[in-house]
Write a structure and sequence with these properties.
This protein is of the alpha/beta class. The protein has an eight-stranded mixed sheet with strand order 7-6-8-9-10-11-13-12, sandwiched between helices. A five-stranded parallel sheet has the order 2-3-4-1-5, sandwiched between helices.
Length: 450
């Protein structure tokens, strides 16, 4: 079993919830069902699982009265050997987007509070490709605001990947001490042991993460086979599943446009300046034509947009320029697989060159910060080639992050520090820790501690 931080979020909800159900959102294939099922079996005497896609007839449970007592009666008709034990039962409603009435029922189930309820599903089924009849039904229903805690789950982050690779929490804590003290990590030239070559070892593990990513099935494939070709094949299966989602949930007119936007990501990242350009999707592409397609991909949890700001000061949202943005995938392993297996191999072997390398490392840091809950922007003046890859709000300031695929010059970051005087600034490199005034240089893997 892959150890996931989300398990502890589930425990916290169970311990501290009041009258609320839990709604778990997130992209497909990230392990939502697996971790919730494990949590249910570990922490409750009775665990009841409803999946509206595997068993469509279960939707009938939420037809008619939504009084909790009636719902529980109908569950007993459809689910064999189910038991309802006050204070010790978890009902898990999976693929809840298939039944809007079930989503509405969460309010009443929360108020009843005898049994815990977790729901999981895709926003795609809620927002897209509804029939006229389904839309009419939804007008009469409501989202259970105030009775539903919505949380976002991601694939494995880099620290979880380290756990899967056998790096224990104590080792990660020791590494974090170097981050906290801003001291160099024992360097070494080869990743052969944990003492002399600590920095080299973690940089090597980071390159593995760049290729494997955090999709649970892909990580398990890597652990079981140690075969990068098998990893690539597993990632291609996930892309096929995403294509199936597009076919199922997107409107016919949007399907080719959604695929075109998603498939353009390698070309977007390979540019010297990785700002998203519609003309990279299609020669005469425009925002009017493709905006809905990008919104679909964001709702699916497949991509995240990072908007430019006209002024890198708080609040960053007030200075966002929605028309100027970058587009990244939410899993670095899927990003690198979009470039092809040979590119993945070159990343592992440290032989990759060219502008695409910089874009891939940008997506790596995006992956690491986004999975930690950061809201990110970037900063670039329209009349200047200098750029700060990421900004986030912390300690009452806009904190800059410059990303380098190796250890290069930092003219952009130096000028930013001079112009805006942040309390500190980060430069992430393929190197080691260093401090120069307010500029803190870190090896890229330490993005997990920022």
């Amino acid at each position: 079993m892959l150890r996931r931080k989300f398990y502890y979020q589930l425990q916290e909800w169970k311990k501290n919830k009041k009258a609320e159900c839990l709604f778990v959102n997130g992209a497909r294939q990230i392990g939502k069902t697996y971790i919730i099922e494990q949590f249910g079996k570990d922490n409750y005497e009775s665990y009841i699982y409803l999946n509206f896609i595997k068993n469509p007839e279960l939707k009938n449970i939420f037809e008619g009265s939504l009084e909790p007592e009636e719902i529980f009666k109908r569950i007993s008709l459809y689910v064999a050997d189910c038991k309802f034990i006050d204070g010790n039962t978890l009902v898990f409603i999976d693929e809840i987007q298939v039944s809007p009435k079930a989503r509405t029922a969460l309010k009443f189930l929360a108020l009843d509070s005898r049994y815990d309820v977790i729901a999981s599903g895709s926003l795609l089924g809620i927002h897209y490709n509804k029939t006229k009849e389904e839309k009419e039904i939804e007008k009469e229903l409501s989202i259970p605001v105030g009775y539903e805690r919505e949380v976002l789950m991601h694939g494995l982050d880099f620290e979880e990947f380290l756990w899967a690779r056998g790096v224990d929490e104590k080792s990660v804590r020791i590494l974090k001490e170097y981050f906290d003290k801003k001291e160099k990590v024992p360097a070494g030239t080869e990743a052969k042991n944990w003492t002399d070559g600590l920095n080299a070892r973690y940089l090597s593990l980071l390159r593995e993460y760049m290729v494997v990513g955090g999709m649970p099935e892909v990580v398990k494939t890597f652990l079981e086979t140690s075969n990068y070709q098998e990893v690539y094949a597993a990632q291609q299966k996930i892309f096929k599943a995403y294509e199936d989602d597009i076919e199922q949930y997107a409107k016919n007119v949007e399907k080719p446009k959604i695929k075109a936007c998603y498939n353009s990501i390698p070309r977007q990242l390979a540019k010297e300046y990785t700002k998203f350009q519609y003309k990279t999707v299609e020669k005469n592409g425009t925002a009017k034509k493709y905006d809905n397609s990008l919104a679909w991909l964001e709702d699916a949890g497949l991509v995240v947009t990072v908007k430019n700001v006209s002024l890198p000061m708080l609040p960053l949202k007030a200075y966002e320029q929605p028309e100027n943005f970058k587009l990244y995938t939410t899993d670095i392993g899927l990003t690198t697989s979009m470039f092809g297996f040979e590119t993945q191999a070159a990343l592992i072997k440290k032989t990759l060159k060219g502008p695409a390398k910089g874009g891939i490392y940008e997506n790596l840091i995006l992956d690491m910060l986004y999975k930690r809950g950061f809201n990110l922007n970037y900063y670039k003046k329209p009349d200047n080639t200098q750029e700060i890859e990421f900004l986030f709000e912390k300690d009452g300031a806009a904190i800059p992050v410059e990303v380098k695929s190796k250890n290069g010059e930092t003219e952009s970051l130096n000028n930013f520090i001079t112009d805006f005087e942040p309390p500190y600034a980060y430069k992430l490199i393929d190197g080691n820790v260093g401090v120069n005034g307010t500029k803190i240089t870190l090896p890229q893997y330490m993005a997990m501690f920022i």
